[in-house]
Amino acid sequence: MLSVKAYTLANGLRVVWYPDPTHSVYLTLSTRGGPRFEQFEEFGISHFFEHLCVRNPDLLRKMELLGDGLANAETDLEDISYYFSFPNRNLLKGVELLGQVWISSVSAMEFEKERAVVEIEYVELATDPRSVLDDLFMGEAWRGHPLGSSDTILWQQNLPNQTLEQFRSFRSRIQCGKNTVLSVLGDDVPMPRLLEILERTMGQLPEGSAFKIDHQPLPNRNGFTVVKQDCPFELVHCLLGFPLPRLKAAERLALDAFSTWFGDPDLFSAVLFDRVRNDLGLVYGISSKTEYFYDSAALAVRWSCAREDVELILNVVMDEIQKIARDGMSRDEFQRAKEILFLRREIALEQPATISEFLAEEYLRFGRVDNPADWVRQARRTRRPDLVHLVRNYLTPQRAVLALYGPVENITPRILI
Questions:
Q1: Are residues 323 and 192 in the same domain?
Q2: Is there a single domain that holds both residue 229 and residue 269?
Q3: Is 414 a member of any domain?
Q4: Does any domain span residue 334?
Q5: Whether residue 191 is found in the same domain as residue 239
């Protein structure tokens, strides 16, 4: 059986390797960062950092002659990640360039040019339904919590105030050995030579320290809340979200099983797709997704619909949840939910970029990671009482937040069940 192997550079940078046989090698470079770790005057600096730390067109061009090179980068609420891939034969040359990109300097001219680029991105995000709904939901459900500052508008407002000196100060805190993880997924990787290259490049960064995590409780919620932003769209874009406390491993399994069965976006047999699209014909698509943070979690259901159907769909979704809270889940349906989760995880093992990302994220968060093959077997451990308990205690109308974006000025949807 393949096993995960972990290494640590002299400066504390951690490397995790999974020798999965693939045609290319996939790498994810992750650091703790994002709005969770920003001070008030720094709002948006993590996203700016994400752009600036790979702003070296000469090195990127050389990487792309070796493979995909830098495939993408993103700033999440609690980490910043970069995704690379190279054919096996070009891996070492690619990692050499990766290391050079990561530590290359940023000039005042480059800083100002990228400020203009980020401003354009913020203008686009300000009307992107997914981004707007995420900001509305997080801002309301995590109000007063560090994650509540995940707001594109705040970042956009603060962008003109950010300085090169501020960026360099933030970079000196985030870009250090102990705050960084590199995952490597691929077969026949010459790890001694790869580690030697990393020591010569990223290993020259200071050891530093990992960003400190202050676990904070979720804000108290005393009832169903609607938060909305009006705009002249034809449809209303909706997110029904449930902020959850930090979950134990068994509860995470139960939530993943429920969400997959309830609204996996790739399953035509998902409960919500069958009920809201097939039976009622009110949406093109409806889906649910889980997300996990250092001290909390979330379940979010998304759909777009006509203005007059928002309340009806809201109540259909809540009714399906409350059926389980009231009556439990039958043994047959639970077995189906568990089997679907097992199969979805089995399919995920065929997506090397996804595995590489997850390895880096888990190792960054916990300092350890399970063998990816175990992710599939873990699905078999899901227990029906855990699923029912989770639904009854956490997916309640009193905890729910409904975020709306579209022609919503004069509507106030209610939970009627």
A1: no
A2: yes
A3: no
A4: yes
A5: no
Report whether 262 contacts 252 (CB < 8 A): no
Residue keyed to tokens 């855990």: 386
What is the number of structural domains in the chain? 2
- Is there a contact between 43 and 160 (Cβ–Cβ < 8 Å)? no
Instruction: Looking at the structure, tell me whether residues 242 and 278 fall in a common domain.
Output: yes
Count CB neighbours of 293 within 10 A: 21
For residues 377 and 1, give the distance between their C-alpha atoms in angstroms, rounded to a whole number.
13
CATH number for position 21: 3.30.830.10
Here the tokens at position 15 are: 């490397």
**pLDDT per residue rounded down to tens, the chain (417 residues):** 578 999 999 999 999 999 999 889 999 999 999 999 998 899 999 999 999 999 899 999 999 999 999 999 999 999 999 999 999 999 999 999 999 999 999 999 999 999 999 999 999 999 999 999 999 999 999 999 999 988 999 999 999 999 999 999 999 999 999 999 999 999 989 999 999 999 999 999 999 999 999 899 998 888 999 999 999 999 999 999 999 999 999 999 999 999 999 999 999 999 999 999 999 999 999 999 999 999 999 999 999 999 999 999 999 999 999 999 999 999 999 999 999 999 999 999 899 999 999 999 999 999 988 899 898 889 999 999 999 999 999 999 999 999 999 999 999 999 997
**Does residue 96 sit in the same domain as residue 232?**
no
The answer as to whether 339 is a domain residue is yes
Which residue range(s) make up the domain with 168? 5-204
246 found inside a domain: yes
Contact 288, 275 (CB under 8 A): no
Residue 86 bridge partners (DSSP): 25
